[in-house]
Amino acid sequence: MTLKLWLHPERTAIRPTSPLAYLIAVASIALATGLRHVLAPWITGAQFITFFPAIMLTVFLCGARAGLLTVALAALAARFVLGPPAPTPRDDVALAMFIAVGLLDVLVLSALLRSNAALKQTLGHLRRANQDLMASEARFGDLLESAADAMVIVDRGGVIVRVNGQTERLFGFSRHDLVGQPVERLIPDSHRVSHARFVRDYMASPQLREMGLGGELQGQTASGAAFPVEVSLNPLRNSDAGLVCAVIRDISLRKAAEDRQTLLIHELNHRVKNTLATVQSIARQTLKSTGDPAAFCEAFTARLVALSQSHDVLTRNDWTGATLSEVLLEQLRPYRRDHVARFELSGPPVSLAPRVALALGMVFGELSTNAARYGALSNDEGRLLVEWRWLDEPGKPTVAVTWREVGGPPVAPPSQHGFGARLIQRSLSHELGGSAVLTYGAEGLVCDLRFAP
To answer: Which domains does the chain have, with CATH numbers?
Structure first.
């Protein structure tokens, strides 16, 4: 230890360079001298005995500089106050040894004080570092628990060391069940051997990696149910244990949506082809039953509108089907006047498949158009009454619909069936396997329909 380091002020109760420190040094030597003088009758040959405690106490309270002053003052007191009038060489040697031992005491005690101060400072740094580490751990824990995805941290051997709450909810395991277990516990049995090989290869050179983007990865719950996942592997660079964080995302809903989208595209292609065939048939049959372009345009447009309205109902339901009341309301909606419906609908809930909804939409569209031209909706007093019910028939459930027009102009049976009547009967018999009976009564048209929904 250099002299500069030795003389550096230590952290003591009194500032080492203050006048009070030197005053204490002088007072301690004066007190030690007086005490040695009082003890002189009982102590012989130990004239420096009271100075050593004074030196050590001064160094402890005031530092090395004050301690050096006490050594010097103690030497002077021992030589001129307590020493013999004519000192012998032996007395000079004893005084020199006292000065050397005193200086050594100052040196050792100062070093101890400095070591103690450094130790306190180090402990303070460690305490603050530990607090920072605990705060960082708490922030990391909060981040881990607030994540929307499952997060699993594994070591080099693929053993789980930590999981978050979303992992428990997603896989159905508790933390106690997972920590200390191989990560293969979270994947199906059929993939565990190959996954263990992958872990060994990956840990040899860990790096950021996205997995399962094609939907080929699967996780497995505690109950044994498998589900598609995407995994992002993120090495924790500052980890001496070579930890890797696996972020696991359940993509079951997205896969289902993708599958549904694919199915809808195929269904749409099929429906477009069927719709084009239907439009072609409507155009051909309408052309046969009309005599001039204006009549053809009017009839053809009305039937296309009916087809379009049926598509609107199915589109609102994502082409999963529609209810009978929805199909009827869509076709009759143009015939409301001043927010007053000129029709009454009554019957139990009936769900229709898309194919059935389209066919019935064409039927009700044809009936609505005829009612608006010639029947109950062609004047201000006429009304429509549509009722349906389930029939208890063996084999399969059947729905009976009665379309009744009242209050319209008188009707008479046509001399020959036009395309509209043929469309209604063909739609019910050919496409739905049902039947349609048209009755032209004195009060108006009655159409009885039967079909399997």
So the answer is: 3-126 (no CATH), 147-250 (3.30.450.20), 286-451 (3.30.565.10)
